[in-house]
Design brief:
Blueprint lengths: L3 E11 L2 E6 L10 E2 L2 E3 L6 H13 L2 E7 L3 E4 L5 E13 L9 E6 L13 H12 L1
Parallel strand pairs: 1-7
Antiparallel strand pairs: 1-2, 1-4, 2-3, 2-8, 5-7, 6-7
Length: about 130
């Protein structure tokens, strides 16, 4: 029986574009695109975790604006994650890549052109629906 790993991710907006991160060759799901974030540590709220992870991985400071629906994804290797997305705004820091191969700022209408990690796809769909609403 596997336990669910709680993970946060940020949909970071700047100038009407969204930050998309490409996983490096060394990471699981190599070269897939994702919304950046990471595991929630003991004693952290999801919001605290996300602010810390984005600072650690990308050297960016964000302001969390709202939470989106979370999704559970089973990678069929015994690894199950609950991905908790937040809409955020870039408020400071100069981008530095610590883990990812690359990041790009992409217009909403072009997000589906990327090869997304499976767990991020329902979040992408929710984002697109929210932007159309």
């Amino acid at each position: 029986m596997s336990h669910t790993i709680r993970v946060t991710c940020a949909i970071i907006f700047k100038d009407q574009k969204v930050l998309c991160a490409q996983r490096s060759e060394k990471m699981s799901l190599p070269l897939k695109w994702e919304f950046p974030g990471g595991k929630i540590e003991d004693g952290e709220s999801p919001e605290q975790s996300l602010i810390r992870e984005i600072k650690e991985e990308l050297n960016l400071e964000i302001e969390i604006l709202r939470e989106f629906q979370s999704y559970t994804h089973d990678y069929n290797n015994g690894k199950v994650i609950e991905l908790i997305p937040f809409l955020a705004r870039h408020i400071g820091g100069d981008l530095e890549l610590k883990e990812h191969k690359q990041v790009i700022w992409k217009e909403i209408g072009n997000l589906k052109k990327l090869d997304w990690a499976e767990a991020d796809i329902p979040i992408l769909e929710d984002l697109l629906a929210w932007c159309r609403a």
